[in-house]
Each structure stands twice: as structure tokens, then as C-alpha cells.
Amino acid sequence: MRSLQYRPSSFKQLLFSCGGAQTLARIHALIVISGALAGPHSPGRLIAAYARLGDVAAARAVFRTSSNPTISTWNALIVANSRLGSPADVLRLYRLLAARPGPACPDSSTFTLALRACAHLLDLEAGEEIKNRAADLGYRYDVFVCSSLLNLYAKCGKMDDAVKVFDEMPKRDVVSWTTMITGFAIGMYKRMRLEGMEGDGIAMVGLVQASAALGDVRMGRSVHGYMVRREINLDVLVETSLVDMYAKNGFLDTALFIFNRMPYKNVVSWSTLISGYAQNGLAGDALSMLIKMQDCGLEPDLVALVSFVEEGRYWFDRMVREYRIKPGEKHYACIVDLLARAGHVDKAHELIKSMVIEPGIALHAFLMEDKSHPHYEKIAEMLQKLGFEMRKMSYVPKTEFVFHDLEEDVM
Question: Repeats (PPR): which ranges (predicted)?
């Protein structure tokens, strides 16, 4: 560490890769001793590191040591409380920030997190207050803020207000559309119940899926309870939908309990639970379930594999954008491998073309050696285009990597 002379970039990389409480405590001590904690980004990165380990008390302690926290530091603590399921604390922190004089001012991330907390608490009044403050600061048409506001209105049954926000959005993404569709679906279910109609298994599956998409675990639990009371047949489709709903909302113990009680599990059931673990940052548990799935004689489908791809892309993007670590060839090779194995050959090729460094032999070798890939012909076509570039870089192709149906003079 002394050889690095306590450079901020060194601490940034250490915090990003830290996976244990004792190691993090040592890094924290080094940051304090070196004086780097006074930097504008160090407190936020420390808070994020403690939050990843689930130690919100330590994250709060770091925040309290910051004499003049920046908005990134505030957001780091708000994110920590949000991920650990403390929406009331998220709102409390937002109000402290909003009332505090100084340069730190709520931004798009702050408003988005605060509105999500309101949606979780069904606190429409607080949501309206946050919406007005966001508009005052120029975030009225921010796509992330608007999407969170749509979610709040949908959960509170205010679909007329949701439609107004939706119509005013200059840009709508998939999340916005999904929120509106699921909000209307739940509204129709409530109307059906008021008219005395009973729902069947198919309707219940749709409602559970809508609850999962909207992040409305209360509605999902209500539907689950309704099915149990009415003794609606919980077949594999219904049970898998319940696993998905609970897993997406962070209730993994409940999701696992339902999964373990299922008399029959298909590939979709396994993939749903694996995806739930991956989406909640539990890559180890996801991998463990993948191994158990294979032990049962089932091969993972695209959903299960994409879960690992998304987890890998999440950390790759976070490494570049948040921690500003310059990716090397090995980083790119790992992501290219993940994308291609999940069938996203085009995306893998786009990533190679977007590299800020020259592609090395490892990436070219990966594309050449993958003879068993389902997109073999497409890869072969791409290789013809890469051949000239390899020759320019003075690469000598290794014969064990050459496709059997390509002439060597192509290289």
C-alpha cells in the first residue's frame, strides 16, 4: 500500500473489490490515516462498500464523520437504506437533505429513491411534496423521476394522475409502459372484486405478475392469501409466479419456501429463483441453485444464463462509471464471454468495437475457438472482417483456434 502512496484511485479499486468486513475495516483505517477521507468521493464510496456488506450502521457512522457531505455522499447513504429495506429512513434522509442549507441539493437519483420509498409506504402526501420539489429544481420531466412517480400513483390507485404524468413525459421507456399496464390490471382486479366476481387461476397469475412488475408486494400477498382462502389450485404456473413476485421484491426466504414446497418444478421455476437471487446481488446463491438445477437433470435456459450476464454487466458498468476503473482486456474478455454464451453475439461484437483499448489476442481467440456456439456461422462471418485487423496488428493465428471450414489465407 505504501508503494501506491495512498492514491485515491488505489482506495477506489480496493473498496470496489472488497468482500469482507475485516478487510473493509483495514481499508477504512488506511483511508483515515492517509487523509483521503476528506476527499469529495471517499465517504460515498466507503458508505457504498459498507452497504454492500449489509452494515448500514457503519455506513451511517461514515456519513456522520463527513463535515460537508456532497450529494453523492447523501445519495450513497440513501441507496444503502433503500437496498436494506428501510423506506422510512430514506424519507427521513431526504427531508434532512431538502431542509439543509448548502451546496448539496437533491438530484434525479435522490428524487427517484425518495419517490420509491413513498410508493413502498403508500405515502401519497409525501410523494406530492417530493414531486413539487423535483419540478422546482428542473426534474419535472426526468424519465427516472417520472417513472417513480407513476409507480407511486399506480400503487395508490391514482391511475388518473398516473395517466396525466405519463402523457406529459417527453420520453417513455419500457418501465413507464409496464407500470401503466400493471397499474390498470390491478385496478381492474379491484373493480372485479367490488362487483362480486371471483377470479380463476389464470387471472390470479396475471395479478401476481402485475404485482411483481409494479413492486407491490402488499397486493401480491393479498392475491396469494385470496388464492389460499379460496383453495384455488396452485399449479406450477401459479407457484412460479409467486416465487417471481416474492424474489423480485427481496423476500427470498419466502420465495425459497414456496419453491421448496412445489411438488413439480420445471426449468422456468428454477430459472425464476436463480434470476431472483442474481437480481438481489446474491450471485453465490444463484450459482448454487444453478448447480442444483443441473444435478436434477435440467439444463439452464436463457433466463437463467441472462441473470448472470446482467449481474456481470451491472458490475462492469459500475466499475467504469462509479469507480472510474479503466477496464483491461481481461475485463472485456469476461463480459464478451458472458454475452456470447447467452446468445448475445451481436452485443459481444459491439462491445469489442467500443473498447477504449486495442483488442488483444484473448478476445480474437475467444471468437475463434467457440466452435460449439449456436451462432457459429455469424461468428465465422465476423472473423473474416477481423482477419485484416489481426494482420495489421501482426498477430499470427494459432492453428488450434482456426475454424475447420475457413482457409488459413483468410487470415
Answer: 142-176, 266-300
What cell does 261 get?
414446497
CA 237 – CA 143 distance, rounded (Å): 33
Domain ranges of the chain: 326-410
C-alpha span between 112 and 92 (Å, rounded): 15
- pLDDT higher than threshold 80 for residue 115: yes
Q: How far is CA 132 from the centre of its chain?
A: 28
The pTM of this model reads 0.59
Return the ∠ at Cα 38 (arms to 34 and 42), rounded to 5°.
Answer: 85
Contact at 8 Å (CB) between 63 and 69? yes
pLDDT classification of 207: cutoffs 50, 70, 90: confident
The three grid cell numbers given for residue 153, joined into one nine-digit string: 400513483
Rounded CA separation 66/393 (Å): 50
Q: Between 90 and 39, where is the model more confident?
A: 90
Judge whether 273 and 255 are in contact, CB under 8 Å: yes
**Res. 210 pLDDT band, cuts 50 70 90:** confident
> In this predicted model, what pLDDT tens digit does every residue of 311-341 receive, in sequence order?
666 666 666 665 566 777 666 776 776 666 5
Average pLDDT in the chain: 76
| Closest C-alpha to 183, from 145, 165, 156, 148 | 156
Q: Is 402 left (phi over 0), alpha (psi -120 to 50) or beta?
A: beta
- Contact at 8 Å (CB) between 130 and 102? no
Instruction: Let me know how long the chain is.
Output: 411
